[in-house]
Known about the structure:
Blueprint: E1 6-11, H1 19-30, E2 35-40, H2 48-58, E3 67-71, E4 82-87, E5 92-96, H3 102-107, E6 110-115, H4 133-146, E7 158-159, E8 173-175, E9 178-186, E10 193-198, H5 199-203, E11 212-219, E12 222-231, E13 243-247, E14 252-257, H6 262-266, E15 271-280
Parallel strand pairs: 1-2, 1-3, 3-5, 12-13
Antiparallel strand pairs: 4-5, 4-6, 6-7, 8-9, 9-10, 9-15, 10-14, 11-12, 11-15, 13-14
Helix pairs in contact: 1-4
Amino acid sequence: xxxxxxxxxxxxxxxxxxxxxxxxxxxxxxxxxxxxxxxxxxxxxxxxxxxxxxxxxxxxxxxxxxxxxxxxxxxxxxxxxxxxxxxxxxxxxxxxxxxxxxxxxxxxxxxxxxxxxxxxxxxxxxxxxxxxxxxxxxxxxxxxxxxxxxxxxxxxxxxxxxxxxxxxxxxxxxxxxxxxxxxxxxxxxxxxxxxxxxxxxxxxxxxxxxxxxxxxxxxxxxxxxxxxxxxxxxxxxxxxxxxxxxxxxxxxxxxxxxxxxxxxxxxxxxxxxxxxxxxxxxxx
Length: 284
């Protein structure tokens, strides 16, 4: 799969200083014809899990051959591997192999993985800088790959594609008519809950649109929310201020308040410790 001259950047750097602009500058210096875009630079600091999720939320909507440079790297300067991977969908990701590839590896699949050899793939005269690999290694390598200056064979040592670092997480499952899942992430702007329960698993409960499911949310085993919620196609299926179950853009189950923020209203977070249960309700 050939690259297509497009780079999409993601980081936890924010846009309040020059870090992202420096990465853009490195890419532009490699080739001014590269097309440079942002996925997001508002990943919470050091949040590898969210970086992984935002990649899977986005990557398949870009043309095959696009290069993603994802830099959420709390272990910068340590022995964690810097890699370039090629996905089953034909996309490239340049990133630390620290769990950022979790969702892509599980959902899309990785066919090739190479460790970046910094002696060949590092910005000139940056070898004494140990804390900005996003600029010196990842942006530089990603730009050269996207511009066709190098190919995968020039990256470095080929590694087993199935040995990426995986962030531990639970898999949604159903037992005795009860679905147990986790809250993977929050909709950053609207506070909806995005679970790892796929649409088809939820539909196996036999809850049609317009009917109700019992919902219970726990954190470290403590119940923090419980209610019977309507299953709707869109937010307008309930009144403003009311809560519903819906299928989000990744075809997983979500929980939202119509024109409200569920996470703030109920002090609910996301992560492997935030669990959610669905059961068919007796409500009409």
